Amino acid sequence: MRSKLTRRLVTIPAVLFAWPIAVAASPFALAAAAVADRVRGAKPGAWPRARLAGFLPVYLTCEVAGLAALAGAWVVTLGRPQALVDATYAIQGVWTKALFGAIRSLYGLRVELEGTDRFSPGPTIVLVRHASIIDTLLPTALLSVPLGMRLRFVLKRELVVEPCLDVAGHRVPNCFVERDGASSEREIERVGALGVGLGPREGALLYPEGTRFTPAKRDRALERMRTSSPERAERLAGLRHLAPIRPGGVLALLDAAPDADVVIVTHAGLEGLAEVGDLVGGGLVGRTIRLRVQRFARSEVPSNGADRLAWLDARWLEQDAWLASVEPSTRPSSSDAS
Predict the structure, then answer these.
(1) What is the domain range of residue 115?
(2) Engineered SS bond to 145: which of 62, 63, 93, 274, CB 3.0-4.6 Å?
(3) How far apart are alpha carbons 316 and 230 in whole angstroms?
(4) pTM, whole model, 2 decimals?
(5) 221 and 244 Cβ atoms separated by less than 8 Å
(6) pLDDT tens for each residue of 163-200
(7) Which of 89, 86, 95 is CA-nearest to residue 66?
(8) Secondary structure of the chain: what % helix, strand, coil (to 5)?
(9) Spatial distance between the Cα atoms of 42 and 44, rounded to a whole number of angstroms
(10) Where are the strands (E) in the chain, listed by range?
(11) Number of domain units in the chain
């Protein structure tokens, strides 16, 4: 749905229609999911389908509340564009923290943070590992909101079907990119534009792998690289837990924000959860999420394009090595999973 109005005339009513149905049906859905968990042999205490069924009405409630707040903010701040931006950032922070808080409580997640004081101040270019459908909540819920930072996100275009994200995401500086490769140069220019004018409490954030990690995606990326850039493919052949950085957007941001430090956010504990269906297996229950923040002064980043890419690859290999050292401890014991 290319037209913003056409899209929202579909997505917003769909959420408003589904919300009361999901809330009213939640006792029956929970009971049916619990029976399915027993029949399918879920481990005692895991209840993965019941937890997922319990999250749906919570998600829709957050969505409806978020849309109501965004509509109210538009009315209250009419004619004051900056006030609308400020209100939207505040609503976005509450919405994200509410969703992550619900997931954390429902699934019994533990969170361990390292180096969060390095996340601020800005300007910064923030590179985040992408391994799960859940990890897009982490930077806002655990870092930017508690530390008073505002992030400009690079997001895939498909996410505009999520109404709150669509409305809020187009009110504040973000970039929803097409990933089909048909207009990659134009998309890279749009990403680079996010780095222009970053202030002391701002950062531009992207997921440099370009997609949620799976071993198959990593292998395909390395295979393509063996043809297009064999030297780089050899350099990154040791990657195990990360896919190679797609350099276009990162390099464009570095050029657009010459004073911005580089912040790398790596997390462990959400592996194997790339799709909603992965939650049905119960693998998320009881996990520990370890999140590490590293900051690199801009003076450490080479100015030459080839040297800059080699530097980024070296930092990515370091993150991969860290993940290899911590991943086993983040997974639940066999008695916690289904």
Answers:
(1) 4-330
(2) 93
(3) 18
(4) 0.91
(5) yes
(6) 999 999 999 999 999 876 556 888 999 999 999 999 99
(7) 95
(8) 60, 15, 30
(9) 6
(10) 110-114, 124-128, 150-156, 175-177, 202-206, 261-268, 288-296
(11) 1
